[in-house]
Write a structure and sequence with these properties.
The protein has 183 residues and is mainly α. Helices cover 51% and strands 0% of the residues. The protein has 7 helices and no strands. Helix 3 packs across helix 6 and helix 4 runs parallel beside helix 5. The protein is flat, with a radius of gyration of 26 Å.
């Protein structure tokens, strides 16, 4: 039994490290709280969705979708910048917490321009497959409301690589991508 206990504690470390580990394990550690921060809540913007220069009735649709007449201030500023003539050639970086509406702030100007016929397509890139799927679900809800209220159909597709697909699925992906490019 004693040998078994020794074997469990023999972690292949030098003796000095084992001693330090045993001593630190006995010591009581107390942490002194420095401060407690409340999560940041985005501020509401000063303009309504319908006052941001989006194609009509996009403001009404987003109000219905979000349950608020007012966007957050970071959404308001991003939409204003993306629809502005001065910023058409500049990159825009928007940072905010999870669920603060960053994707919506980029989707809305793009959808507005699609509805107006100013642009023909939009490509959105995300760093993770899970994020693609989550945002694609939200985008489909928005596009369904747009179609219901305007009769205009905007199609959206996702592509996240061919890893793990068999040959038949890869061929289907390629055909779907070709069809998307063609349309």
């Amino acid at each position: 039994m004693v040998e078994l206990e020794k074997a469990k504690t023999n972690i292949g470390a030098p003796a000095w490290l084992k001693r330090a580990y045993r001593e630190s394990a006995k010591r009581e550690v107390r942490y002194k709280p420095i401060t407690t921060l409340e999560p940041l809540k985005p501020e509401k913007g000063s303009k309504k969705w319908s006052e941001l220069g989006l194609a009509q009735p996009l403001g009404k649709i987003v109000t219905e979708l979000t349950g608020s007449e007012y966007p957050y201030s970071h959404q308001q500023e991003t939409i204003k910048a993306l629809l502005s003539e001065e910023t058409k050639s500049r990159s825009i970086v928007l940072k905010g917490g999870t669920g603060s509406g960053k994707s919506l702030a980029f989707f809305l100007p793009a959808i507005s321009l699609l509805l107006q016929g100013t642009i023909d397509f939009v490509v959105v890139c995300y760093p993770m497959k899970q994020l693609i799927e989550d945002q694609f679900h939200n985008l489909k809800r928005l596009l369904a409301l747009i179609h219901k209220q305007t009769g205009k159909l905007i199609t959206a597709k996702t592509y996240h690589g061919e890893q793990g697909l068999d040959e038949e699925e890869k061929l289907a992906w390629k055909e779907e991508l070709f069809e998307t490019e063609r349309n």
